[in-house]
Amino acid sequence: MATTTTIPAFLDALREQLIARPGLIDVNAWTAEMPEPDCGPKNIQFISAEADVEWGALGSCRRNDSYTVHGFIRVVIPGAGEETIKEARDEAFRIYAELDAQLMGDKRVNGTVQSARVKSLSMDALATTDGRACAIVFQLEVKTQLTT
């Protein structure tokens, strides 16, 4: 089977790297959106990807495999009040720092791509029936080149 994109290999490799990080021992990582409570109170979810395929020059079998992976980090802390909100936010950003450090330390993600980096992020603070939550929504910019 010819390789048409690196998306599956990239997601698998990045998930494996993240769950191996000591700082993420209590964080679940998923390569699809997971419902509560299956996802756990602290989680990273890679929920979708969109690609721009650019072919090389005429007659070339080379193409750029560039895509954006959409995901989020979600932390739910039981309780209420500003201290609980702060705890959820601080923990979400601690997890984000682990994701960022992993990508900065291995931009090639076990050799699956040429580069991967955080492209953008936003934060939402939420009240849930279980407590207070913080979600960091991010986009990863991934680039590589394929030959067929």
How do you describe this structure in short?
With 148 residues, this protein is an alpha+beta fold. The chain is built from two helices and six strands; from the N terminus they run αβββαβββ.
Identify the notable features of this structure and list them briefly:
6-stranded mixed beta sheet; STM4215-like; about 150 residues; alpha+beta
Task: Describe the 3D structure.
The chain is of the alpha+beta class and 148 residues long. It has a single domain, classed as STM4215-like (2-Layer Sandwich). The protein contains two helices and six strands. The chain has helices at 7-20, 82-105, and strands at residues 28-30, 42-55, 62-78, 115-128, 131-143, 145-147. Strands 1, 2, 3, 4, 5 and 6 form a six-stranded mixed β-sheet that branches. Strand 4 and strand 5 form a beta hairpin. The longest helix is centred in the middle third of the chain and has 24 residues, at 82-105. The model has no long low-confidence stretch (mean pLDDT 93).
